[in-house]
Design a protein that fits this description.
Elements (H helix, E strand, L loop, with lengths): L5 E3 L19 H13 L18 H10 L4 E10 L6 H8 L19 H4 L6 E10 L3 E7 L4 E7 L2 E6 L4 E6 L23 H10 L5 E11 L2 E10 L7 E9 L5 E8 L7 E9 L17 E4 H13 L5 H10 L3 E3 L6 E4 L16 H10 E6 L2 E6 L5 E5 L4 E4 L3 H11 L1
Parallel strand pairs: 7-13
Antiparallel strand pairs: 1-8, 2-3, 2-12, 3-4, 4-5, 5-6, 6-7, 8-9, 9-10, 10-11, 11-12, 14-15, 15-19, 16-17, 17-18, 18-19
């Protein structure tokens, strides 16, 4: 086994990607789970078949090996287990009904159950098996395998297709800007920024590495039939962070991350465990990336959804300035940095405060009561919704503080902002 060898990462933290957020009182717990899935990643618990004897390598050399990896073609199966310590999102979605459904999907007027924005939320809880394939920067496919159905997301050249066999619905969009290859290191075209392989998770984890992070080589492992080094990433003196450690298994030959495991400071099972169970670095068949909607499938065009959402957002707006102000309220600000970063959503004056909800479904209210913990401070009062990784504080005047930090750290951030 390779010995432990530590190194510090001094590159600056990447800027947080702003995104539109809807702040509603009973959607926040689901958004918290979504942040965990989208920001940290997807990877499985795999049994090791013995630790291989590999040449010694330093942490810096292993990081450079990952960065230099030129793997663009592969196929295989990925197992993802996510344990945030909350009830299944699938059951929650059913309880909340239309509040979590794609806009218009609940009444048959537009929207699509195949929309990746909502479908990939399912990866935020439980264990899932994915089939993945890639052939260069302009062809990728990710399929979520269920007992009686399959959901597939396909990016091929200038198009993105998503298909849900359970509902026989398809979603079609043009590839995001940069999908011709310039997206590398930026945004994945197929998944709207949601990671789907251990490599993408590892890249996000390393972006967060700074002088508050220790990185070491923690032995070797056998993953999906291949020899791998284990890279251990741990926050140093990051009081308030819920991240205990991250382990990345790196293919010894290609430098491709094969497995990603995130352990919380609270101990117990991994919060996120994602890894290949099978992997093949040969070029996938070209037909893998072909897609034609089945006969009778409902097809939703992305530009139709965009137009519908824009029209809905404009209702009651007196002028363009009011629309702009609404959008600005949803742009997150950041308090702190590195492992202790807290993202702030909503206005400072409560202009977009969510309403208390007498209309909240009973099951959704029970869900919130189970997660919620009332807190007070200089900021006023609010409720903290907790998972094993990402937590959120919703203040009574409409602001939301969210991050991979403890309840006390959220209250401290709220007091600091006040």
């Amino acid at each position: 086994m390779a010995p432990n060898d530590s190194a510090q990462i001094t590159e600056e933290d990447g800027e947080a990607r702003a995104g539109r957020r809807r702040v509603t009182r009973y959607a926040v717990p689901v958004a918290v789970a979504g942040v965990a899935a989208a920001t940290i990643g997807l990877v499985p618990a795999l049994a090791a078949s013995g630790d291989p004897d590999l040449p010694k390598i330093s942490a810096q050399q292993l990081i450079e090996k990952i960065a230099a990896s030129d793997t663009e073609r592969l196929s295989g199966s990925v197992k993802i287990t996510t344990d945030l310590g909350i009830p299944s999102l699938g059951g929650l979605t059913g309880a909340m009904g239309s509040s979590l459904a794609p806009q218009g999907a609940e009444d048959g007027k537009g929207g699509s159950t195949a929309d990746p924005t909502t479908k990939l939320m399912e990866l935020g809880a439980g264990t899932h098996t994915l089939r993945v394939a890639a052939d260069g920067p302009d062809k990728q496919r990710v399929s979520i395998m269920n007992d009686a159905a399959e959901y597939s997301l396909i990016h091929n050249a200038g198009e993105v297709w998503a298909y849900d066999s359970a509902s026989n619905e398809a979603y079609h969009a043009a590839s995001p800007k940069g999908a011709d290859g310039s997206h590398q290191g930026k945004e994945r075209p197929a998944g709207k920024g949601v990671p789907a392989t251990p490599k993408e998770f590892a890249e996000q984890a390393l972006k967060a590495a700074g002088d508050t992070t220790s990185v070491s080589v923690d032995g070797t492992a056998r993953i999906a039939g291949r020899d791998a080094y284990q890279l251990l990433i741990k926050p140093k003196q990051a009081a308030g962070s819920t991240v205990g450690s991250i382990t990345v298994a790196v293919d010894a030959k290609t430098g491709t991350p094969l497995k990603f495991t995130l352990m919380p400071t609270s101990g117990g099972k991994a919060v996120v465990d994602v890894g290949f169970t099978k992997v093949d670095f040969a070029r996938p068949a070209a037909s893998t990336f072909d897609f034609t909607p089945p006969k009778g499938a409902k097809v939703t065009q992305a530009d139709e959804d965009t137009a519908r959402e824009s029209a809905k957002g404009g209702e009651g707006a007196k002028d363009l300035k009011e629309l702009k102000d609404r959008n600005e309220l949803n742009q997150p600000k950041v308090i702190g940095e590195g492992w202790n970063a807290v993202y702030v959503l909503g206005s400072s004056d409560g202009a977009s405060a969510p309403s208390t909800s007498d209309e909240m479904p009973q099951d959704a209210q029970k869900f919130m009561d189970a997660l919620g913990d009332k807190v007070t401070g200089k900021f006023g009062s609010g409720t903290v919704f907790q998972t094993r990784l990402v937590n959120a504080l919703m203040t009574d005047d409409g602001r939301v503080y969210v991050g991979a930090v403890t309840k006390d750290a959220l209250v401290k951030a709220a007091n600091q902002a006040k």
